[in-house]
Design a protein that fits this description.
four-stranded antiparallel β-sheet; five-stranded mixed β-sheet; Helix Hairpins; 452 residues; alpha+beta; kinase; 11 strands; HisK_dim/P_dom; 18% strand; 3 domains; single chain; Heat Shock Protein 90; 10 helices; EC 2.7.13.3
Length: 452
C-alpha cells in the first residue's frame, strides 16, 4: 500500500473518530447541563418531592386520586414537565412529553414513604431543563444534515491536504529511489537529500556513505587491476623478448640469460602469491593457528635471515631487547613474514653506512586499557614525505616512485605486513622525517607475565 493511500485511509478514520467523539461529548454535555440545573435549584426540586411524598402519606399511603390533582401542587408551577411513574405506569402527568422521552430526558427524583420505602419516581423538567431538551432535540434533528455537509467539506479538505502532504513526504523518497536506481546502473555521481533533519536525511546520509564506499571500492578495484597489469607486464615482456630473440636467431640461451629469465619467473610467482595472500587476509579468509611464542626468538631468527643484506650495504643492524623472554600468542610464520617485510623495507631505504635498530619492550597503552608488546624498527634512511604516510600501506604503493623494481619489491610488502598484524588484533604505527629516517612500531597483545 502506497503512502498516499495510507494517509487517506488514516485521515478518513480520524474524521470518523472526531465526529463520533463530538457526538458523544455533545450527548454527555446535555445530561451534565440538566444535572447542573438541579444542583443550582435543589431546594425547589426537594420541595416538589416533599409535596408528593406528603400526598402519599395523607391518603393512607396510597396514590388514589393523584391523576385528577393537576395543578394542585404548589411547586408544580415551577416545572414544565412532571411525571409520576409507579411500576412503569404514568399516574400523574403535567406537560406533553411521552413517558419514554420523559424518563430518558427528565431528572429523576425517587420518592420515599415513612419507612424509607420507595413509593415511586418523579421525572421532572423545569424551564431551563426543558429548553436544554428542546435544543437537544433540534440538534439531533439537524445533526445528520450537518454531519453530511461537514464530512463532505472535511473530506475535500482532507484530500487536498493529503495530496499536498503526500507529495511533500514522498518527494525525498522519490529522490532516494532515483539515486538507488542510478547506483544500480553504475552511475556513482548521485545526490541524496542529505541536508534534511528528519529520518529521510538520516537514510540519505547512510546511502551517501554507502555510495561513497562503493565508489572508493570501485576505484580501488580499478587501481588494483591497473597495478597488477603494470607489475606483470614488465617481467612478461622481458621473458617474451628474450625467447623471441632466441627463436629468431636460432641461438641457445646462455646461462646468464637463463638465470635472468628464472629471476623474472620467480618475480611473477612471488607477486601472484603475495596478491593471493593479501586478498585472503583482507577478505578474512585466512585461518589463524596461534601458539604461545617468544617474540625475542622470532626477532633473533629475523636478524639471522637478513644479516647478509645489511652486510652487503654496510648497514649496522642493532637490537635492543629489554627481556630474554617476551611471550605473545601468534602464528609464527605470519608474524615473521610481517616483521621481515618491515625490516627489508628499512634496509632498502637506508643508505650505505647507515643503521637499522630493533627495539622490543612491553608498554601499557592507556587509550586501549591493555598491555602490548612493542616492536620498533628504526632506521636513519631517506624517510617518507608526510603526504605519503597515509598511503604507504596501500597495495603497489611506493613512496619513492623512482626506485627500480629489483630493489623496490612488488609494493605489497607493507600491505601484507599490516594485514598480518591486524589479524592478530594488533596495529602498526609509523613516524618518519625526510632525510632523517623512519620508525615502524608494531603492537601485539601481550600475554600475562607468569611469576615464579
Amino acid at each position: 500500500m502506497k503512502i498516499r493511500t495510507k494517509l487517506m485511509l488514516s485521515m478518513s478514520i480520524l474524521i470518523v473518530f472526531i465526529m463520533l467523539s463530538l457526538l458523544a461529548v455533545t450527548h454527555i454535555q446535555f445530561y451534565i447541563d440538566r444535572d447542573l440545573v438541579y444542583l443550582e435549584e435543589k431546594a425547589l426540586f426537594d420541595s416538589l418531592r416533599d409535596e408528593f411524598e406528603q400526598y402519599y402519606v395523607n391518603h393512607g399511603e396510597s396514590w388514589d386520586g393523584i391523576g385528577v390533582q393537576a395543578g394542585a401542587f404548589e411547586h408544580s408551577r415551577d416545572f414544565v414537565e412532571i411525571g409520576l411513574v409507579i411500576e412503569d405506569k404514568m399516574l400523574y402527568q403535567q406537560g406533553s412529553l411521552h413517558l419514554r422521552d420523559l424518563r430518558d430526558q427528565g431528572y429523576k427524583l425517587t420518592l420515599y414513604g415513612n419507612n424509607e420505602q420507595k413509593i415511586g419516581r418523579l421525572f421532572v423538567m423545569n424551564d431551563a431543563q426543558y429548553k436544554t431538551y428542546e435544543f437537544k432535540t433540534m440538534w439531533y434533528s439537524i445533526l445528520p444534515a450537518i454531519a453530511r455537509v461537514s464530512i463532505l467539506f472535511t473530506c475535500l479538505a482532507a484530500l487536498v491536504t493529503i495530496f499536498i502532504l503526500s507529495w511533500r513526504l514522498t518527494k525525498p523518497i522519490r529522490e532516494i529511489i532515483k539515486g538507488i536506481d542510478l547506483i544500480k546502473g553504475g552511475n556513482q555521481e548521485v545526490s541524496f537529500p542529505i541536508h534534511r533533519k528528519d529520518e529521510f536525511g538520516a537514510i540519505s546520509r547512510a546511502l551517501q556513505e554507502m555510495n561513497d564506499s562503493l565508489a572508493s571500492l570501485e576505484r580501488s578495484r580499478k587501481q588494483l587491476l591497473s597495478d597488477v597489469t603494470h607489475e606483470l607486464k614488465t617481467p612478461l615482456m622481458i621473458i617474451q623478448g628474450e625467447l623471441e630473440l632466441a627463436q629468431d636467431t636460432g641461438t641457445a640461451l646462455s646461462f646468464e640469460k637463463q638465470s635472468s629469465l628464472l629471476d623474472e619467473v620467480l618475480r611473477l610467482s612471488r607477486m601472484v602469491n603475495e596478491v593471493l595472500d593479501l586478498s585472503k587476509l583482507e577478505a578474512g579468509g585466512t585461518q589463524l593457528y596461534p601458539k604461545t611464542e617468544n617474540i625475542v626468538m622470532i626477532l633473533n631468527q629475523l636478524v639471522e635471515k637478513t644479516q647478509f643484506l645489511a652486510e652487503d650495504k654496510h648497514i649496522c643492524l642493532i637490537t635492543h631487547i629489554s627481556e630474554e623472554v617476551i611471550e605473545v600468542s601468534v602464528e609464527k610464520q605470519r608474524i615473521l613474514q610481517a616483521l621481515y617485510n618491515l625490516l627489508i623495507n628499512a634496509l632498502h631505504y637506508t643508505n650505505q653506512g647507515g643503521y637499522v635498530k630493533l627495539h622490543v619492550d612491553r608498554v601499557y597503552r592507556q587509550d586501549r586499557q591493555n598491555e602490548y608488546v612493542r616492536i620498533m624498527i628504526e632506521d636513519n634512511g631517506t624517510g617518507i614525505p608526510e603526504e605519503d604516510l597515509p598511503l604507504i600501506f596501500n597495495r603497489f604503493y611506493r613512496a619513492d616512485h623512482s626506485r627500480a623494481r629489483p630493489s623496490g619489491g612488488t609494493g605489497l610488502g607493507l600491505a601484507i605486513a599490516q594485514q598480518n598484524i591486524f589479524v592478530h588484533h594488533g596495529w602498526i604505527e609509523v613516524h618518519s622525517e625526510v632525510e632523517k629516517g623512519t620508525t615502524f612500531s608494531v603492537f601485539l597483545p601481550a600475554l600475562p607475565v607468569v611469576r615464579e
